[in-house]
Write a structure and sequence with these properties.
Layout lengths: L31 H6 L8 H10 L1 H6 L4 H7 L2 H9 L1 H19 L9 E4 L15 H15 L4 E6 L7 E4 L5 E4 L11 E2 L9 E6 L2 E12 L2 E7 L7 H4 L10 H21 L6 E5 L5 H14 L3 H10 L1 E4 L10 E3 H8 L10 H5 L10 E3 H7 L3 E4 L2 H11 L14 E2 L6 H4 L2 H11 L10 H4 L7 H29 L4 H10 L5 E6 L15 H9 L5 E6 L7 H15 L7 E4 L4 H10 L2 E4 L11 H6 L4 E5 L3 H5 L6 E3 L8 H25 L8 H14 L5 H44 L4 E7 L1 H4 L8 E8 L8 E10 L5 E15 L2 E8 L8 E8 L13 E4 L1
Parallel strand pairs: 1-2, 1-9, 2-8, 9-10, 10-13, 13-14, 15-16, 15-18, 16-17, 18-19, 19-20
Antiparallel strand pairs: 3-4, 5-7, 6-7, 7-8, 11-12, 21-22, 22-25, 23-24, 23-26, 24-25, 26-27
Bound molecules: pyridoxal-5'-phosphate (PLP).
The site of pyridoxal-5'-phosphate has 13 residues, from α7, α23 and α24.
């Protein structure tokens, strides 16, 4: 038999990759560059940005202003050159000194320590952990916290892919592109504990444990800790948890929020951060409350009710969403699948635990905003109007109270001045507002110095910024259009028509339908006349992303792109793809008008217009969100606040008509009405009014001060008292609440005495005594409040409270007490009245902290 010949496979082994890191070429003498690149301080400090640009302007643009990548890519020879360049070295040392001085001034910080939680942060385009307004706001807020020396740390998630990049194809269809972030190329570093170990957290998922690493980003003196689950020890589905911001399904969202809330608190603990106040920016992070309760129970041996007292006192919840459907909620079955393990940690039955996220037992979803509201002493909306809207959205939680009574306040959102203001403006501000500016930006009088600036200086600056924008758009636009193989003739026609002297209007934001980007296009003939007026033309620049799942929003974009290609609109209406921070900056600084046309009251605050006004970009918007507070006559334009039609289509028609009229009759004449020096005096007066009277109110400085005055400081002070002497007050209040809860339903109203007149007719000037007798069943008279509410029917058929009077305990007999008050009617009219009881304690922060109330029928 012939022996079979074969060649045996060799033992090849597996590749064994050993990691080596080649640090960039930066020579030792230029090492400050490396430090500067690792702290986002450079983002809002122009000299630092210039420094990077000088290194290599081309690479700086190519890498989209990412200094870490820049330093990686610059050649050794270029660095050698820079080392010998005295001017460069001097500038570098100057910037570095400024940077170190800034940090030194922030080594020891006073005031309450704040932990801030958010699902997204918009700090710079290179750190793709934001999608839009909410994130930009949080990012601006961290920069401001650093500037204002607030002791704040922040927690979020580090997404591998972040939010998508928007490419449009030839037909205007949005293509979502997700690029993986290489964490070595973005400003994050491993967060280390005190032993120098990389901090990781563990979150329990059904049948397994999720592991997440913690990264750190430095924003001036503020540290942002980012949790990253893309770790080889997790299974694939779990690694996906932090891949996309607002990606995946509702289940993934729950997994993300468990990581952010439960994992976030764990991370802070491992890092040794122990804050006084926990600020939940939107409901996504609401699990922080239950994790803190669990920790307090385990470490301080508090009961659930006591620990909750401590947590509520120190938590603030900011809601951003004006419609109930926008609030995150999870179906109860899925919620239980994931969270079943938790109630045991805090000694609750499942049903009781679930009620933390519900207004009524029969609801089938667990609502994160309800959870946050139930665990926060402070609740606020993000503009005056949105504060009221939030009362309506959350009112089901506070049954027994009328909407208008709810202790839901507001802090209007603002924007970070150094980030959003053009350097050209900063120079003017320094020159006329004083060298100290912007550190004294809260002194609103300082801004009035804008009236001392000569008109031509402002006009020259506006022209320059518009020109810069047009150049930028031409670059960006032609690149994109060539890539997508647009007709070269069309490209050159459109770009040729873009005119740096034409009145330029910007409209850029998320393409959600309520933002009504289509409004302007309701009457295309009329719009064509406006933009093509031969002496007084107008051009519009649009930008914005639609959520990948939002078909209607994507159709809007497509529609605008189609319109922009029609012969009559070429170069007059332009859609620029991939709205990001850099484009936002260029637009807001360069356009003459920023337009916003949301359906009222769906724009909770809006911030982009605020970025505009500090650059002298006039605002033209519906009186919604911040503009309700911002608008002043001769400082921008507004669409009327009141809704004329219930049918949205009619309202849109009317609003579109109003927009065309205002454009034709006011905006265009003001812009093109020139004096003998070709300066539009009226326009400039609007610009000055805007900077003097509108912008100072919409900075993150003002916003931070409001948070301190209205929430951080009062909550800190109360919280200190609640926690003092081994949580003495927390325990007292908790015991009192438990006592009231046990008795409340037994309380019995024995008798109500009112002079007949109340029910019928009373005379002004006469006295009417009112008496209510109650069997308190052992509660003390001062523990039960009795009040008489007087209401008036308003035009909309709703009762509004016109007066609330407290009846005072007069005499007790056994367990009963008689409460009394005398009414002195002083207004004629038809009123209704009702009595109610409420649980009363001098140490409650406000009435709805303990929602024991009973209306007397
Ligand atoms: C400011 C900003 C937003 C938010 O703008 P709104 O006016 O709140 O819609 C969104 N995206 C980017 C890139 C921004 O700079």
């Amino acid at each position: 038999m012939e022996e079979k010949k074969f060649i045996k496979n060799p033992v090849v082994g597996e590749p064994v990759w050993k990691r080596i890191i080649v640090d960039s070429n930066v020579p030792e003498s230029l090492s400050p560059l490396r430090d500067l690149s690792k702290n986002l301080w450079w983002v809002w400090n122009t000299e630092a940005r210039e420094l990077f640009e000088i290194i290599d302007a081309e690479i700086w643009e190519e890498c989209a202003h990412n200094p870490i990548v820049l330093l990686d890519q610059v050649s050794y020879n270029r660095f050698k050159e820079l080392e010998r360049d005295e001017m460069f070295v001097a500038k570098m040392n100057e910037v570095n000194t400024k940077f170190n001085q800034y940090l030194d001034e922030r080594k020891e910080l006073a005031g309450p320590g704040i932990s801030y939680f958010s699902m997204e942060y918009g700090l710079h385009d290179s750190l793709k952990i934001f999608s839009g307004g909410l994130g930009i706001l949080a990012g601006d807020y961290l920069k401001e916290a650093s500037d204002m020396k607030v002791k704040l740390v922040a927690v979020g998630l580090l997404y591998r892919y972040g939010y998508f990049k928007q490419n449009l194809n030839l037909h205007g269809e949005q293509m979502a592109v997700y690029d993986a972030q290489q964490f070595s190329k973005i400003p994050v570093q491993p967060a280390l504990d005190k032993n120098g170990e990389w901090v990781r957290v563990e979150v329990q998922y059904p049948g397994r444990t999720l592991i997440a690493r913690v990264w750190q980003t430095n924003i001036g003196s503020v540290k942002l800790y980012l949790l990253d689950a893309d770790h080889h020890e997790n299974n694939d589905a779990d690694r996906f948890v932090t891949h996309h911001l607002y990606g995946g399904d509702n289940e993934n969202r729950l997994k993300q929020e468990m990581l952010l809330g439960l994992g976030g608190i764990q991370a802070l603990k491992k890092l040794g951060v122990d804050s006084d106040i926990y600020h939940c920016n939107e409901g996504h992070a609401a699990f922080i409350g239950i994790q803190r309760i669990a920790n307090l129970m385990a470490e301080q041996k508090l009961s659930y009710v006591e620990a909750k007292e401590v947590v509520n006192a120190s938590t603030l919840f900011t809601t951003h969403t004006p419609v109930p459907a926008g609030h995150d909620s999870f179906h109860k079955d899925m919620f239980r699948h994931y969270m079943n393990f938790f109630p045991e940690k805090i000694g609750l039955a499942w049903e009781d635990f679930e009620m933390l996220g519900k207004a009524r037992a029969e609801e089938d979803h667990f609502n994160m905003s309800y959870l946050a509201s139930n665990l926060s002493q402070g609740i606020n909306g993000v503009s005056m109007l949105h504060g009221d809207v939030s009362k309506a959205v959350l009112k089901d939680l506070f049954r027994g109270y009328l909407e208008e009574e709810l202790e839901i306040g507001y802090v209007t959102n603002g924007v970070h001045y150094p980030t959003w203001t053009a350097q050209e403006w900063k120079d003017i501000h320094k020159k006329y507002f004083g060298e100290e500016f912007p550190t004294n930006q809260l002194d609103f009088d300082v801004w009035k110095n804008i009236y001392n600036v000569p008109d031509y200086e402002i006009w020259e600056l506006r022209k320059k910024l518009r020109q810069k924008l047009i150049n930028y758009i031409k670059d960006r636009f032609s690149d994109n259009w060539i890539k997508r193989s647009e007709n070269p003739k069309l490209i050159s026609e459109i770009l040729g028509k873009l005119n740096p002297n034409t009145l330029t209007i910007g409209f850029a934001r998320r393409f959600a339908t309520y933002k009504r980007a289509h409004l302007l296009f309701r009457d295309l003939d009329r719009l064509a006349k406006i933009v093509n007026n031969p002496d007084r033309p107008v051009q519009f620049i649009f930008a914005g992303k639609a959520h990948p799942a939002d078909k209607a929003g994507q159709d809007l974009i497509k529609n605008i792109v189609e319109v922009s290609k029609r012969p009559e609109f070429r170069g007059k209406i332009l859609f620029v793809q991939n709205y990001d921070i850099n484009l936002a900056k260029m637009l807001l600084q360069g356009v003459d008008i920023w337009m916003n046309t949301p359906t009222r009251p769906l724009e909770a605050s809006g911030t982009s217009g605020e970025k505009g006004v500090m650059n002298g970009t006039l605002h033209f918007s519906v009186l919604d969100g911040w503009w309700v507070e911002g608008y002043q006559k001769d400082a921008g334009w507004a669409l009327p606040a009141e809704r004329a039609y219930d049918v949205q289509d009619f309202q849109d028609e009317l609003d579109a008509e109003t927009i065309y009229n205002i454009l034709e009759e006011e905006v265009v004449p003001a812009y093109y009405g020139r004096n003998q020096y070709d300066i539009p005096e009226k326009w400039i007066s609007f610009v000055k009014n805007t900077i003097a009277n509108v912008s100072p109110n919409f900075t993150t400085s003002r916003m931070m001060r409001d948070y301190q005055d209205r929430y951080y400081n009062p909550q800190y002070e109360r919280s200190q008292r609640v926690n003092a002497d081994g949580f003495k007050l927390a325990k007292e209040i908790a015991a009192w609440k438990e006592k009231i809860a046990a008795k409340w339903d037994e309380i019995e109203v024995k008798n109500i005495e009112i002079i007949d007149g109340i029910a019928h007719t009373m005379m002004m000037g006469d006295k009417y005594p009112v008496k209510v007798s109650i069997d308190l069943k052992g509660l003390k008279p001062e523990e039960v409040g009795v009040e008489l509410l007087i209401a008036e029917s308003k035009d909309d058929g709703q009762e509004r409270i016109v007066d609330t009077v407290e009846l005072l305990p007069e005499k007790s007999e056994g367990t009963s007490c008689c409460y009394k008050h005398t009414i002195l009617p002083d207004h004629p009219g038809s009123f209704s009245y009702s009595f109610r009881l409420y649980a009363k304690h001098p140490e409650l922060p406000h009435r709805q902290d303990f929602r024991f109330i009973k209306w007397i029928s």
